[in-house]
Design brief:
The chain is α+β, with helices and mostly antiparallel strands and 87 residues long. It contains two helices and four strands, in the order αββββα. The longest helix is centred in the first third of the chain and has 13 residues.
């Protein structure tokens, strides 16, 4: 369910096709002051076309060790830290 939705969104938003792992990479429940967020991260690989910014002003690629140079929402930080620790 999540995997087909992600593939569709990636195709629509950045005009490329991806393949995904069969299991979520990580799932997080984060409680903000007024609401709760449930995030599911999915590992994916580009399999067709180069991503293009069709819905966004620009796209950038960063090495894992540079991910913390961006400002992340608190709910995103555990997944970003896990990505950085992987080699």
């Amino acid at each position: 369910m999540f995997f087909s939705a992600l593939k569709r969104e990636i195709s629509e938003e950045i005009n490329c096709q991806i393949s995904t792992d069969t299991n979520p990479y990580m799932d997080i429940v984060h409680e903000y002051e007024t609401f709760i967020v449930y995030l599911i991260s999915i590992r994916a690989k580009i399999v067709h076309r180069t991503p293009t910014a069709t819905e966004h002003s620009k796209l950038i690629w960063l090495r894992r060790e540079n991910l913390l140079s961006l400002v992340w929402a608190p709910a995103d930080i555990p997944t970003v830290e896990k990505l950085i620790q992987e080699k």
